[in-house]
Structures are given as C-alpha cells and as structure tokens.
Protein 1
Amino acid sequence: MKGYEVISSLQDHIGENDLIVSSNGNISREVYHYLAKPQVYLRGSMGLPIGVGLGLAVMNPEKRVTVITGDGNLLMGFGSVITAAYYKPHNLKILILDNSQYFTTGGQQTVSSAINFSKFLESLNIDYFQSLKASQSILDDNLENFLTTQGLNILHLIIEEGKRELANIPWHPIKIAENFLQRFD
Amino acid sequence: MINLDEFVSFIEDNFDLVSGVPCSYFKEFLSYIPSQEDKSPIKHLSATREDEAIAIAIGAALSKKRALVYMQNSGLGNIGDALTSLVQLYKLPILILVSYRGLKEDNDFPEHSIMGKINNSFLGSLNLLYWDLNEKDWEVSMQKAITVMDEQSSPVVLMVKKGVLSQ
Ligand SMILES: Cc1ncc(C[n+]2csc(CCOP(=O)(O)OP(=O)(O)O)c2C)c(N)n1
C-alpha cells in the first residue's frame, strides 16, 4: 500500500476537531489534496513536524493533533519523538509513513530499517503503539484505535514507495498559516 | 541581574509557552520557570535541540498563542532552516532569548569564540530583528519585542549577556 492511499483512508476519520501537521515534500502535498483543509502543510523545516505538533497539542488540549511524517523527517528530528514521549500529551497522534526512502528527492535510501520499531516504541511507555505493514485490512483494524485511544499514540506503517501526480500546494506558506490561524478565531 | 520574580511574572502574564535548550547564562532564570508538571499558567517544554524548540513555539504560534524560546548563541547554528523555511516563511511571531557567549568574559571558552565574533552578522544575514535585554530597561525591551512580533508577525531576538538573567 502506498502513502497516499493511507492518507486518503484518513478522510473518514478526520473532523473539525482535528489538527494535522504534515512533513515536507510529497506527504504535505498528499495531505493537502486528500484531507479536509486547512491544516499545517510544512514545506521545509525537515525534521520538525513532531515539534510543531507537540506545541499545537499542549496548547490545544481539547483538539486532536495528528502528525503525519515520513521516515526521513522522523530521523532528522529524532529527538522530538523522545520529547513527545516525555511530555505525553494525551491528544497527540504520530503517524510514521516509512518507505525507507527520501522519496521526494528521488528515492535515496534512508537508514530507517536499522530501527526495530516495535521494540523502540515499546521502550517509550506510551499509550498506544503499533509497527505494521500497511494494507487495507491493517488500516481497518488499527486506524480507529490509533486515533481514538486517549494518550500519546504512535503508529509506524511500512508503505510502498510511489505517488499520484498531484499539483503543487497552491497556497503560499503565509496563506497556509493565515488559513490555519482562522480556525482559532 | 534582573529581578527574576518580576521577570518571570512578566513572562507568565504575556506568554503561553516556553521552550529551549539551556545555557549557564540562564541558570537562575530557568530555576524560576516552572516545569511542565506544575500548575503554572505557562507550559514549559525542555527541547533536545534548538530547532525543535523553535518548532514547538511555532505550534503555539499557529494556534494564536505566544511563545518564548531560549538558547545559547551556539544554538543559532542549529536553527537556520527552522527560521528561514518555517518561522519567516510562514510569517509567524516568536520571541527568542539568546545568550551572548564568546565575548571577553568567555576568554577561557574557545568553543564560543567564533560564534561570539560573528554573532551580529549572523543575525543580520538572517534579517532578524534583535537588540539587547538589559538589567535596567528590561521591561521596555520585552514590551517592545512583544509589540514588534505581534504587529509584524515576525520573530524577534533579544541578546542576553552575562549577569543579566543569572549571576
Ligand atoms: C534540511 C533539508 N534537507 C534536505 C531537504 C530536501 N528534502 C526535501 S523532502 C526530503 C525527503 C523527506 O523524506 P521523508 O520524510 O522520508 O518523506 P518522503 O519524501 O519519503 O515522502 C528531502 C531530503 C530539505 N527540504 N531540507
């Protein structure tokens, strides 16, 4: 299963109370195209999506914050997983889409396969974690739990490389921020 | 040194979140900042890197909350991309307190000497607005920083020399 298929499966689970932060490159583009707008589409700041989600989550305890990050982004800001696990905001959900590639820049291999995610996530003592190979039945069985279990939840999904040709995000980042900020008027 | 009771209560009145990586120049200041567990009006999150602290602050700014970041100027070297491709690109306001290491009193700390020399040109090349936080007029500096960040929706840096927020 491909990353955009996982992202489009989130459609049915995401409502007005959901804030999403997506990591740069392909993933932000897919989140923009498939999920309710506006969300925080990061265009740069590689490595920082979990930090942004953490700040949003602790400031907005009544909302659900879901970070959708590639493995390259995860690895670049790996300390943020530890920070999130330390503070354990009850409303933060981290979805790792792991194609073991920097797909956006041409599919160069990352080092993510050196991690045993089940063991690593277990060591964090968080409220929910799974490390699975993405498929429709895996999503059917796990997405709801991942999103609704109270606590800091991390779902690591192995995905296949690949994308749909999607237009670039038409909003300038200033507009992304403006539109998102309006959700707090 | 600034009266830390007054300084921290000013921060509690004007900010919602604090995050950063420590410097010994902030030692006493940070001992006054409550930890996350306390029932404080502000949240304080200790970060693993300065760019992470910036990201956490931006999460707050994206929901109309005011955030303060603290770091050593060595941390400026870690936040170039966070500033240019996040804070400035999305035009969001945060206040950054930066300790000014590498001046005369840091003669015995060669690790700070090079950044100490280029500190201002570094901030200048990032087009950052910055001025000093001083013991005498700290409240004016802080108030001005808040006005500028709110009105221009931009980051502001306050440089903190030795003895200002810790002995
Ligand atoms: C600091 C920095 N270094 C490099 C890049 C170039 N870059 C853009 S996207 C990307 C890959 C991101 O990988 P991942 O998070 O795994 O997502 P994927 O592309 O696989 O969907 C890279 C290296 C960048 N934007 N910023």
Note: Chain B touches chain A through 35 residues (CB under 8 Å).
Protein 2
Amino acid sequence: MTTSPTDLSGAVLPVRPYPGQAALARLVIPPSGSTRTYHDGLAAGRLMLQRCSACGRCRVPMAPVCPYCDGEAADWIAASGRGQVVSFVRYARAHLPEFEAIVPYTVLCVQLAEGPRMFGRLAGSDTAWIGQGVAVIIEQWVDGGRAPAFVSSGGAG
Amino acid sequence: MSSSVAIVGIGCVPFARKTLDESVASLANRAVAAALADSGLKRRQIDGLLVHIGSPRGLDYDEMATLLSLRTRFSSQTWSHGRFCGTVLQHAAMALDHGLADYVVCVATFVNTRFGNHGTVGFPGFAENLREGGGPHAETLHAGLILPAGGTAMALQRYLHKYNVDRARLAAVALGQRRSALLNPLAVMQQPMTIADYETSPEIVAPLRRLDCSVPVDTSVAVILTRADRAKDLARPPVYLRSYQGIAAGPDEFVFGQRGLGINQSEETDYRPLGAGEHVFRSGGVTPMDIDTLHCYDGFSPHVLWTLERFGFAPIGEAADWIMGGRIELDGELPVNTSGGHLSEGHSNGWGQTMEIVHQLRGDAGPRQIADCRLAMWATTFGDAIIYDNQPD
Ligand SMILES: [Zn+2]
C-alpha cells in the first residue's frame, strides 16, 4: 500500500478522560506499519481516516485495498468529527471489567460526515436515536491509551 | 437433477447445559459409534474425517483420528465458530465427489460449559476480538461492543427502523421454536414459553432479549456421508444433498446481519435478495415454494427473519409479518427449525438441525413429523445453504 506522509492538520477533537477508570491496552490492537498514522492522530487529538487516492472515498476499518474501487493507494485525512447515528444498542450489564463502572451504556454505529461508519460508545448521555447528530471525542484511559467515542450534538445530524 | 452424495448415518450424545464428567474424546466417540451403528458401517470403513470445532473446546482432527482409531486419507477442520456446519458438510460432499474418500464422518464435539461465556476473558477465542477489522461478530472492545449478541442487536435495531418492523412480532420466532422443542427429547429447553415470559425477558443487549438468544450447550454429533451409489446398500434410507452453496463474504456482508443495512463497513443499499435465483435453488432445479421445511442458523431470533428474506421465502423487510399465524410452526405452511433450533434445542452450531433434517426426511421425526416431507433446506443469514432430498432424483 502506498501511503503519503502523515498530515495531522485538520480538526482537533475534544479529549476527555474515559469515565470507567480502566486501562485500554488489552482492548485495542497495537500499532503496526501504516496503522501508526491512526494512533499518532489520536495522540495529537485527531481521528485520522484512510482515504483512497483513486476514488477519494474514506474507509473504516484500515485496509490495504479500497472496498469501493479496489485501489491500493491511500492517504490520510483528519475527520471533521461530525456524524449521524445509524444504529445503537444498549448493554444492561458489563461483560468485561473495563465497563463495570459505566453500565448501563450505549454503543453507536455512526456514519461520519466523511462517509465511513464506525462503532463507538455514546459518552455523557443515555439517549440515542437513529438520525441523531453526534460528535467525535477522544477518550483518554488510565494507562494513557486513547480511543474515539461520541457525544450527542443535540439534534438531528 | 441427480444427487451424488448422501447422509447415511447420524449419532449424538444428549445436549447438555451442565458439564458432563467425560472427556471430549469420549463424547466424540459416543457420537461416532452411534452414527456407525445407524449406518451399519464399521469403523475401519471410515476414510475421511472433518472436524468442525477443534481444541480447546473440541478435539483437533489429528487427535480426533488418533484417539478414536480412525484411519483417514482425507482430513480437515474449520475455524472454531458455529457458522461452518454447512461448509463442513459441503467439503465432505466435494471430497466424496472427487474420490478423496469413500466414507466421511463429520464430527461436531465441543464443550462450551467448561469455559467462560462467549465474549468474556475466560473464553478460548477472546483474542479474536482484536482481529484486524473487528471481532468475529463485529466486536469492537474499546467501544464496549462485545459478545456475539452485540453485532446482531446493532443490525436488528437498524432493520426495525429501515423496514418499520413491529418489534413485538419477533416473539413468534422464540415462541414457535419452543413449542417444537417441547416435542423433542433432545431439546434442553423443556418448559413452555408464554408471551409474558418473552416480553419480560431481560434485554441482554437491547433490542435483543435473553429469549432471543440461543442456549449454549455441550454438543457431540457425528454425521456420516458417502456417494449415492454406495448409500443405497446401507442400513437407513439415504438423505441426499441435492444442491448446495457456500458462505458469502466480503465488504457487502455483515456476518450476523441482513445485507444492505449499512452496519459496519457494509453499504446501506436497497437490498433485493436473489431468492429463487440463488445458486442452491437453480442448481437444485427447485424454488422456495418447493421446500417442505427450512432449518436455519438461529444464534439469535432475527437470524430466522433474515434467512427467510435472503432465500426468498418472505419479501424483504416483511418476514416478521410473514411468520404471523403460525406460518413457520409445525403445522404451518413452512415449518422452520422443528427441533427447536439453537434457541430451544440448544446451540449445536447447526448439527441439531442437520439431524432433524435427516429425521424429517427419513420419516422418523415422531410427534414432529411433517407429512409428505421430501425437500428440506439448511440456510443461514450469511448465505450458505444445502437442499436435502429423500429421493435420488
Ligand atoms: Zn477507491
């Protein structure tokens, strides 16, 4: 895969502590190769998206081939952080200790303004609905690990 | 249409929700011995082995063969997930068709109760949650999207919205399959289910309720297949594989959800299922209307709706209405999962349904027997299918 140099300009997103007082390390894949761009982006307060150099569409998850045009060249852009709820589920219980302090909690499937869909927890609110406007935040866990989540932006997306 | 391969023997150990004081090899052997007895074959005639789920929940093919004194010239094994029942049977059929073996035994022995629940840290497959791209059921741990139920619940919420489906109607799947299970001694769920039971069942991962979820069990099932020419001479009536097709995969598929819902990276589309145009129908020379009974992968109750739609039994987005009035129950137009399925017989990863298909087509399903049952179908949300026939052509 061809990847252009990392461009970390673009929207800087709010960084908040993960309220569950837990470490992130065992919940995420360690960086390798080009996925370092995504992790470097989170460290710099940005959600980096892989963008196909041929058709210009962004994709999630990171992949060596564009699912829309099969192009193999890609660069990266910083997401605007805006999105809309496509679907959501609610967990009554924690099935991993990392979530015990925050149950019940809601997980969203969000369509980002740039196109791809992404799963993330709804932070700071209990109410989700399809079509709801949300914004990306970056949560910092107690071990310093960072992961994206969402907050309601207070209306339709 | 002429079928080249048939199931000629089945055997199992009763499904169990509590850990049995018995080794995996012993459980596997009891099922294999029962299948051999059913078919009239001798152990030394088996020359092909396919294992569905290996160690540590089951046994890998090599030790399975060694410990059960099987001597095989064709041996294989699939990933430790439930979705490969049809694939295992298809690989057996292809191996037989190509002369790689003459008698293949498929073994599905796995002991879930000895480990933590699926999706928790104690489960053998926990590390799979961190696969590149996401877990086997779209698990995304940093988001708290965990358990196999998570991905299906996400797809269900979108499905209810997209097609304006009445959530309450989903109850008919769990209630109907429970009624069938009460007629099946192998089923682990033997208490009647009322609509009140369903509606007060806790939301494990909303919108999925506990009674929308399959029941984990320890399972040991063996199924023996051979070519049609040899099948005719054996002890029991052959159940022929009339046609089949494999699992679909790729960016357009979301394993435990309907296509086109726009969950995860799969695109939101105006999904038009192929229905009767699916390879399994075209190559079998039949249509959904010809199927006497459907058996499907029901890890969660919405999978039944999505299978009915994917394979053209019900119009897209309308399966929850289509199943009203007992249409998929034993005396209905299309009896579905008449063993009770994963929801009530126990989550056998499709092997309980496979045995039920054999019973229905042999005509020995007892109180669950469907009159004049000739064509039975296995099908899944993720696109694989087998049409079984009790006649060779
Ligand atoms: Zn492209």
Note: Residues 93 and 149 of chain A are 19 Å apart (CA to CA).
Protein 3
Amino acid sequence: MTNLKGKNLISITDYTKEDYLTVLDLAEKFEKNPNQPILNDKVVGSLFFEPSTRTRLSFETAANRLGARVIGFSNPSATSLQKGESLHDTIKMVSSYTDIIVMRHHKDGASRYASEVSPVPLINAGDGANQHPTQCMLDLYSIRKTQGTLDNLKIAMVGDLKYGRTVHSLVQAMSNFNAEFHFVSPESLAMPENVKNFATNSGLKYYEYDKLEDVVPFADIIYMTRIQKERFPDQLEYEKVKNAYIMTAATLKGCKDNMKVLHPLPRVNEIAMDVDKTPYAYYFQQAQNGMYVRQALIASILGYADKVK
Amino acid sequence: MTTNNKELVVEKIANGTVIDHIQADRVFKVVSILGLDSYEDEVLIGTNLSSKKYGKKGILKIKNKYFTQEELDKIAIIAPTATIITIKDYEIKEKKSLEIPHQIHKIVKCINPNCITNVEEIDTQFEVVGKDPLSIQCHYCEKTMQEIVFND
Ligand SMILES: [Zn+2]
C-alpha cells in the first residue's frame, strides 16, 4: 500500500502501479461499506467550470458519504468567472477555504496549472480533451472486479480511438499489467502513434482491426466509445463506417464467458439496448463503481486511508 | 572588400560572437529568432557556403554581441549543429557546440489553441521527447508537437 496523502491526481501517469492498486483496494472497502463519515471536519471544493452532471454527482456523493461538506459551482455562468476572473485567482480563493479541490475545465492543461497554483491537493475531473484520470481508475476497478485480475488480459477498444481520451489513458494504465491491446476503428479515427508507441515502449503488443466482429472471439474486455459524426471531415465516410461499430446482442455471439462490455457513458447508439440484457453488459455497474473509486481517492489524498473500514 | 568567398568568411571581428555550422536552410530563421534583423551593429550573414561536414552551411558574425543561455537555447532548437565562438580582442575565447535542452521554458508557445497556456498568463514548459526530428510535449496540455513556435 502506498501513501497518497497530498498527491495530486491530474494525469493517470502521475500515479504508479502500486498507487492504482492502493486506490482499488480502498474502493473495494467502500463498495462493501459506502457510508463512512470519516471526513467530518473536511471541506471539498467542487469546481465545474464546464458542466458535467454525471461526474459532478459522483464526486459530490462520494464526498457526502465520507461526511465531508462540499462547496463550489456546477455552472461557471453563475460565478465571478463570468466577470472575467482568472483561473489563477479563482483557485487561490477556493483553496483558502477548502482541504481538497475537484475540478473540471474545458481547457486542456487547466487542472495541471490549477494544481500548481493551489496549496491544497487537486483531483482532475476532466480537462478539455486531455485527461480524465478518475474515469480511468474506475475502468481499472471495473476490469479487476469482473476479471478477478488486471494481469495478462486481452483488451479490445472500439470506435473513436483518435479523440477518445479515456482509451488513451486506459492504454497507459493497463501497460503496467502486461495487457494485449486490440484496437478497432475506422482508419481516420485510429489510435494515435504516441499512444501506440507508449504500448510498444512498455514491451506490449497491439493489433489493429476495422471490424468489431474480429475481436469478439478472444477479448476479455470490449471497451466501446462513441463515434461522433462531427469528427469526420467527410460525412460520406461517416455514413459508410458508422454501422460497423454498433454492437448488438447478435454481435457478441461466440464471445468468451468472462467477457464484459465497458463504456464511459453516455452512449448514443453504439451499444444497442438488447445488449443490456446480456450477461456481458457491465457499463451501468461501471459508472456506479466511480463513486467508490472517488471515495477512495478523496480519503487517501486527504490522508485518511487507514481510517477506512 | 574582396569578392573571394573564402576570405569573406574568415574576415575577423574584434569583439562579438560567431555562429558557425548552421544548417544552410536555417540561417535566416536564426537571424529572425535572435532579432538580428533589427540589430544596430554589424552583422555578417553567410549562407550556402561549402562545408566538409554538412555539404552546405551558414555562418553569422555578430559584432559586439554575446548571447544569454536563453538565446543559446533558442539557437539550439532551430540549429542544433551550430557552433558558438566567442571573440574578444580578435582572440577566440570560447568555442562550444550547442545542445538541445531537456526542457524548454518560456520561449516556445504551445500550438494547441485549446491549451490553458494560450488563455492565462502562464510561463510555458515543454519536455523534449525527441531530438531528431525535434519533438516536444507541453507540460500542461500534454500534446506532443513537432512544430516549434516561439513566443514574441
Ligand atoms: Zn499546451
């Protein structure tokens, strides 16, 4: 177990393999026993410069179940930011009131910068197109929970692998666990070179496909992502490929028994409703796991890990 | 003034800096990055000169000018093969080759328009992740880029 007291979480690579396991073990305790008011004297700053109801509710519920109080905003239009206050000054002000800050921002790198301004630790709840490390942590938690291990798994990632930050982080995190990666995407949305290099440099193998069916027989995890129409420079190209990345219950015929389908949610149409009823659907539980992981992060970063039962 | 190319190159300056072995296609970039186009003392610019090592090279002689480390880092980023020769009283005081720094502070701008460094007043920071070709990663937005844009 590692000590995470005071350690910012901005990018998934800020934490080590041992740090991940520390958080996951603690999250397991919260799953069994979610109401542990050990942070009665703590105040959590929840700063959502960009609205994200799903992530915000997960963090704020996590803080509440720990007995902490939450201050902040869910919509920047209601704050002095509207009057042009800098991020720097907002963070200076909020950090003087709080013990830890959870922050989401539409600009890439905003959370790293805020963590350098803030004297209290900061958890990145998403900075533009860059990082969303707590999503990655809950993905790890979900993978371990469904597979019983994080080691030596075959992880398939499907859809928009170019712009999908969750799949980039997941490759980085899973590179610690001898994963084998299988990337399924249209050519124009393929996994970026720097992410593939990360896998190669970690001594791991990856394979690329253009059809979802190709990975179904052997994948332990199929991680689905949204394909957004706007990402295609050519709408004709979108019309051509869109159906190739839609999963239905029939698509999953012949998959492994232990296989689980993950998705960062919200989904649009890439997973058909009939998949929900199969034993392979795990995306709703995956979202719920986010709360336990966030409880674990808040408690351990504030130095209360040993108080968790 | 002689028309002999070789003699022009070796013409000496009393005090100042000679930047030798600049890749020929980078000479004018170095001139602009160092602001030498508005420098008021003598500047000799030589380009497409033959060089045993590089085929063609460029050279700059700048009278009464010595460069700061920050300026040397800028030169290293654009012209990593360059040699810096410091001249005092017609004597060579120091001759050194440049090294691309591991980190680049302040002088380079992030090309990601959505990067926080392009919104707030923040000193930029980059990690050099590849040297040939030069590839840098923004400390804030984590984007990797090959295109180098200097701050004004
Ligand atoms: Zn940047």
Note: Strands of chain A lie at 43-48, 69-73, 100-105, 122-127, 154-158, 180-184, 206-209, 221-224, 260-262.
